[in-house]
Amino acid sequence: MEHSRQRIKIAVQKTGRLTDHSIDLLERCGLKITKSKDQLICYGENMPIDLLLVRDDDIPGLVNDDVCDLGIVGLNVVEEKRLQLEQRGSNARFKQIFELDFGHCRLSIAAPSDTEYQGPDSLKNTNIATSYIGLLRDYLNKNGIQAEPVFFSGAVEIAPKLGRADFICDLVSSGATLAANGLTEVAVLLESEAIVIQTLVPLSAEKQALVDKIIQRLDGVLKVRDSKYIMLHAPRAALAEIRSLLPGSEAPTVMPLEGSDDKVAIHAVCRENVFWETLENLKAAGASSLLVLPVEKMLA
Ligand code: ATP
Ligand code: ZN
What we know:
By secondary structure, this protein is α/β, with parallel strands linked by helices. It has eight helices and 15 strands. The structure holds adenosine-5'-triphosphate (ATP) and zinc ion (ZN).
């Protein structure tokens, strides 16, 4: 194996909501790894890339300290780390380089459903339970509100019931957990998703080229996620109508059909999902031999 300094190290969540998506995306970029989730490190077999499997909260710190070159982690965790560093008087030594469009959630303030909430002023002189002290303090400061964050490392949503807090500040996606605990969302502090961060320490030219390649491949993987390749036969006369029915397609390829003057074959990449209704409408417009295929990779 090459010298480890020449290999790219990516910090990934070991077990949790981000794990499967993170590893799946890297595999779709062509990375083959020896999968042993109990280990701290997974070695890339076909590229000089290794994964460090850690708790998500540790990821920004590992990139900040240049232990890892890249990290895949929620924006919420990254921003919390950035603010903690700032509040301690130092600047973050990592930068966001790509948004991954999964792990969507928001950091919100919620209150017991019978609380009267009239905007941020209602938070004045209250106790707010959270594990996001940095982000909460930042929000309170920006709104000029004096309130007391109470640190809870887990199960924040039970704090009001325990009489430990008036409000909570926690991650929400569907809102089902809040509802189950008799809480209502009153303010959104941050919209989050999984992102890729990179150390600010410059990489060697080869390593940076490989990072650029991975990011370009990730972009290709995300772009084709909902894309379909559609093939069909159509009467030449129906071409305009059929083109207008193809969802999210730019320039379809139109080819003559051997032995037929009035029919053509149309191939197109549709950037949106193709539903049964679309196929039925295409058929009603005169299309036949309809075929819809998934798109695996795309390089613009
Ligand atoms: P770890 O053991 O790695 O510290 P964790 O319990 O802190 O794990 P998870 O619950 O796996 O973390 O969440 C990881 C990330 O998933 C969050 O930081 C956030 O970016 C994202 N996420 C998406 N939806 C939600 C949600 N409904 N609740 C919590 N996190 C969510
Ligand atoms: Zn965590």
